[in-house]
Amino acid sequence: xxxxxxxxxxxxxxxxxxxxxxxxxxxxxxxxxxxxxxxxxxxxxxxxxxxxxxxxxxxxxxxxxxxxxxxxxxxxxxxxxxxxxxxxxxxxxxxxxxxxxxxxxxxxxxx
Length: 111
Description:
Helix content is 46%, strand content 21%. It contains four helices and five strands. It has a five-stranded mixed beta sheet. A hairpin with a 2-residue loop joins β4 and β5. The longest helix is centred in the C-terminal third of the chain and has 18 residues, at 93-110. The chain starts with 6 loop residues before the first strand and ends with a helix.
């Protein structure tokens, strides 16, 4: 199967200001938020590989220091990447794996 193309976004501090002041953004999909100062982010790559293996669509946001700093204040997490699954912040790569493990266990219990 061929996975659909993924969206890649760049956010800098000026777009963060516009985002906070002028827009009400609610992330409902799957999003991997990277920090632009870490171009070789192995956990970011692992997260993308995992979502690709599961056949899930996702977007990648490359954030600058100011945007990522604001995000860390919101999520109370200092990890890279910051991951959102179906609109829910799940943490970093390990948090994402735990999210899917918990979901699978819940499905097994209800079956």
